[in-house]
Write a structure and sequence with these properties.
This protein is α/β, with parallel strands linked by helices and about 325 residues long. It has twelve helices and seven strands. The chain has a seven-stranded parallel beta sheet with strand order 3-2-4-1-5-6-7, with helices on both faces. The structure holds guanosine-5'-triphosphate (GTP) and magnesium ion (MG).
């Protein structure tokens, strides 16, 4: 075991720039715990980012997202590219490295210096899931990885929003992921860029493929036609094809100058998401700490004060924004 190093801001920055995995591991731990030093690191390294291509994977629990990343890593390492992986676990405050399951599924890659894998808990993070994910992706980018994979488990709603940092969004489903089909159909879930139906050995895989196809057929306006690939992450089946589809999406974005546009939109979205998370945390804290503001909530409950008047008073007091109680 290496002795525990006393990292400083400078040695961390230097280490990350050099792609040192211990520096990266330490930095992501700082991100996880909302340490102000993480913010400083990202601020310092940000000008060098934007080199990595970011692939975001989302989908219901247990569909095989981590297994698929493992299989994709084998493929892209053969192509000579390096990669960073961050699996975001919104239900846990700390992950301490890799989750046990991921450790098994991604174990082929742990000794490979061209790959950095890390799970990250985000529960209780002051800036929320978006902030932690954005910071981790930027750190992996700054460490010189060609590719960054961000895995996050979908909760059924707004799954894709949490990977607003991704250049390509890959939705992973498996036969029986009916909820996700409904969410796509209802427009609750944004249409991803590529869909993988994993566990293709399952007898219902074909049915699932047809269901997904019929949902996508409702959305014929787009220039990009969302490819659907049946995969088997365990046996590595069709993983090269999946990677080719991700590559085609990338080429589509790069060809028409859309990548720059998308990144601009993504980053603006991230700034808003993080600012909103912080504003909300600030608001909750302010109300919890201020008996006068808490009293307003009691008055609303007792029907002595209407809700929008309470909003006006709270917003004026906490943010010093004059409003008439209506959103603009
Ligand atoms: N039969 C079959 N099993 C698979 C396949 N891919 C993954 N699995 C299994 O499915 C289980 C879940 O796989 P994971 O890769 O951990 O899935 P995940 O989506 O990352 O799960 P969470 O991160 O917990 O949401 C594991 O037991 C895998 O071995 C596949 O293609 N076929
Ligand atoms: Mg996983």
């Amino acid at each position: 075991m290496t002795a525990r190093r006393d990292w400083t801001r400078e040695t961390l920055i230097e280490g990350i720039r050099a792609g040192d995995r211990r520096a990266l591991a330490r930095a992501i731990t700082l991100v996880e715990s909302s340490d102000p030093l993480a913010y400083e690191l990202v601020r310092e390294l940000y000008p060098q980012t934007g080199q990595a291509y970011v692939v975001g994977l989302t989908g219901p629990p247990g569909v095989g997202k981590s297994s698929l990343i493992g299989a994709l890593l084998t493929h892209i390492r053969e192509l000579g590219q390096t990669a960073g992986v961050v699996s975001v676990d919104p239900s846990s405050p700390f992950s301490h490295g890799a989750l046990l399951g991921d450790r098994i599924r991604l174990s082929d890659h742990f000794l490979d210096p061209g790959v950095f894998i890390r799970s990250m808990g985000t529960r209780g993070h002051v800036g929320g899931l978006s902030e932690a994910t954005l910071q981790a992706a930027l750190l992996l980018d700054a460490a010189g990885k060609d590719l960054v994979f961000v895995e996050t488990v979908g909760t059924g709603q707004g799954e894709i929003e949490v990977i607003g940092v991704a250049d390509t969004v890959l939705l992973v489903l498996m036969p029986g992921s009916g909820d996700s089909i409904q969410a796509l159909k209802a427009g609750i879930m944004e249409i991803p860029d590529v869909i993988a139906i994993n566990k293709m050995d399952h007898p219902a895989a074909k049915t699932m493929l047809n269901e997904v196809r019929s949902v996508l057929a409702l959305d014929r306006e787009r220039a990009w036609k969302v490819p659907i690939v049946l995969t088997d992450a365990q046996r590595g089946e069709n993983v090269d094809e999946l990677w080719a589809k991700i590559g085609e999406h990338r080429a589509h974005l790069e060809r028409d100058g859309l990548l720059e546009e998308r990144r601009r939109r993504n980053l603006a979205g991230e700034v808003f998401a993080v600012a909103s998370a912080r504003a909300k945390a600030h608001l909750q804290h302010a109300v919890a700490e201020d008996p006068e503001l808490r009293r307003l909530l009691d008055e609303v409950a007792d029907r002595e004060l209407d809700p929008l008047s309470a909003v006006r008073e709270i917003v004026e007091k906490v943010f010093r924004i004059e409003t008439d109680g209506r959103p603009d």
